[in-house]
Amino acid sequence: MENKQKITIKDIARLTGLSKGTVDRVLHNREGVSKKSYAKVMKVIEDLGYEPNIYASLLAQNKERVVAVLLPRSKDGDFWELAEPGIVRGMDFGRNFGIKVQKVDYDQYDIESFRSACDEVLALEPAGVALPPMFKNETLVFTAKLRAANIPYVYFDSKLEDNGYLAYYGMPIYQSGYLCASILTDEMDMKEVGIIRIQRDKHGQSDPTINRREGFIDYISEHFPKCRISNVFINPNKPREIDGILAGFFAENPGIQSVAMFNSRIYLITRFLEKHPEKKCRVVGFDNLAANLLALKKGLVTSLIAQRPDVQVFSAISALTEYAVFGKAPAKRDNFMPMDILTRYNAEYY
Amino acid sequence: MENKQKITIKDIARLTGLSKGTVDRVLHNREGVSKKSYAKVMKVIEDLGYEPNIYASLLAQNKERVVAVLLPRSKDGDFWELAEPGIVRGMDFGRNFGIKVQKVDYDQYDIESFRSACDEVLALEPAGVALPPMFKNETLVFTAKLRAANIPYVYFDSKLEDNGYLAYYGMPIYQSGYLCASILTDEMDMKEVGIIRIQRDKHGQSDPTINRREGFIDYISEHFPKCRISNVFINPNKPREIDGILAGFFAENPGIQSVAMFNSRIYLITRFLEKHPEKKCRVVGFDNLAANLLALKKGLVTSLIAQRPDVQVFSAISALTEYAVFGKAPAKRDNFMPMDILTRYNAEYY
DNA sequence: AATTTTTCCGTTACCGTGCACGGAAACGAA
DNA sequence: TTCGTTTCCGTGCACGGTAACGGAAAAATT
User: Fold this and answer.
1) pTM more than 0.85
2) Nearest residue on chain B to A185, judged by CA atoms?
């Protein structure tokens, strides 16, 4: 194998007695080649293990291609803001290969804006699309179009089982809930736990927190069958209500020493707890938003379970780039990325 | 900015009234260009934001360069084995850019083998070297030679303060000890803790466990000033002695409920603990060796603090590759990578 | 047999950079 | 002035692959 005189199409042309034009036709399955010539070329390619020089190929093609990233528009200390550095890194990475990485964002609460963002992406005729599935049904419609247009796509953050994606980069959702419970109950005999949830009134949004809650509840019932689980609902759009609701909740359930929340808004709860230092709660939440990290530093949150949206989106972009440029699919299709446990002593290194 | 007619050296040549040969000389800081021409070319480059086409560049160069990775030879379930996947990934990555990534390993207990490995690396005339500093003095000698030969090098795992490295990818060592103590004492009133250490008799090896132990002890004395800290030494090369030593240690210090170890060999301890289930110890160790992970699964280890040698070595290789190919230095010089907290419920995703 | 059509293939001009070669101009020394 | 040196720069080929163009040969039609 180690006769490393990198063979070229010129070599193949010489060995087959054909011209490099014909070899090129064979390599790209273009028409206009006799069966005999085709077979001859293929044999030499097999025998010598020809691998095209991608630099030369890309140079000759000399066209700019684009990889689109479709995701919710981030504001302030939002979850999606965490993905931003990954997109920037992805742009850098793509640029090395002549790939333009273009972000297309939408309002995650406005399905119309999602639809038009999808159209915008299609109009780009991208070489690949990276996206988290937010609106479930619309996403399925969109990815069906992508498949029809033969455009590869990669899910990140969470995924749908549409069986057509090139790869997935994200957390194992259920297990993250399980992990959450195990941290919350570490070294304790858990008697009572509070779950704080967000009132949803949306049209079929893909909601990972449901699956996460299942993992949580399973852990609790496996390890502490007698533990009481109480739920309370808040609405993050009406922040003034929250304190009252929580005060009522804790008053009704005075035994609660542990609190969990399955979305990224745990900071809403610690705002309340900070004002009521008499409540010494063990608190576990998700995602390293700036506000959450602050609460962690202050000791109001015991641990955060974090994923790294930046790493995920970068992985998605680089997978699509390598697929577009080198034609190689990612080694693994489903890439469950680590669930990082953040405490006040290691958080700053993430 | 968006006048995206990708400009080329030919354009620059035209605009400056020079030839592409001269433009090329300017771009590569080669001699034989008058100050005036140099300035003219640079101005146009600045103004138009010229970026070279790397496909064309690599195609034209058409030469194989090598990035060397110098590290201890790994055996069985060794720490260094964990780096292996990162090297493979690095090879893949490098291949995309016509860079050959070559591993050169040595016996970490044999300074002579290290010296000859260094010579081997130098003989390769590499475009870059990635290495963890094992033998401190010898490493300084080696990196001095690299600097003299103008070969960039990147430390990973740990680093020396030689002020000449291109980048560092590794854990914040001291903080990892601090974190270790915080996990070990979580929710407990810590009265007594055992530290298990390895007898060293080596010639000036760079030993991160010392710094780590400092972090640990600082945390304990800050949070539990009255806590007693006992040390015991084992020799991993004489495994038959270990059980006896530990039995003696626990007999002498019956109050010990928590155990820490600052190298990757915590599995040596859990082997003993498994045979003595009456000792219910909280145990925290380092690094996700297969044997450690097994102990974690069995519940013999509470948590492992892990770094990701594979990610570190891959980061080192890709940094060197990008430096060699694109001439761009890494964004940050000192890259302190996350200290991952592994429990039995999240370990498998690392 | 003469023609058109189809099939097949070689030629050639790129793509953007790198670099060796050699020549012109400027400079210095005699 | 003449001749050698040095400085500076343009020319042209190479790198490996792509694809348009057009022509020769084979097949089909008249």
Assistant:
1) yes
2) B187
